[in-house]
């Protein structure tokens, strides 16, 4: 299962990274189930993100941009 969600995250990244308003992705958990997270700066950017990838739910987290420390 771990390999499946990692592969799903890579496919999600290929679809959404580089779009305006999308800061990153991660693997997370909601209601005890694994999910994919997308960090978006606003609702407009989030609206273009798929709801599922390879059967895993995609959850939008509102966040600003990330920067290296």
Brief summary of the model shown:
The chain is an alpha+beta fold. It is 28% helix and 38% strand.
Q: Biggest sheet, open or closed, and with what strands and sense?
A: 4 strands, mixed
Cα end-to-end separation: 32 Å
- The global form is globular
Mean pLDDT: 91
Helix count, per DSSP? 2
- Structural class by helix and strand composition: alpha+beta
Number of separate strands: 4
| Cα gyration radius (Å) | 12 Å
Beta content: 35-45%
Helix content: 25-40%
The quaternary state of the protein chains shown equals single chain
Please describe what this structure looks like.
The chain is of the alpha+beta class and about 70 residues long. Helix content is about 30%, strand content about 40%. It has two helices and four strands, in the order H-E-E-H-E-E. It has helices at about 1-15, 45, and strands at about 20-30, 35-40, 50-55, 55-60. A four-stranded mixed sheet has the order 1-2-4-3. The radius of gyration is 12 Å and the shape is globular.
Index terms:
alpha+beta, 38% strand, 2 helices, 69 residues, globular
Lay out the secondary structure:
Layout: H1 2-16, E1 22-30, E2 33-40, H2 43-46, E3 52-53, E4 56-62
Parallel strand pairs: 2-4
Antiparallel strand pairs: 1-2, 3-4
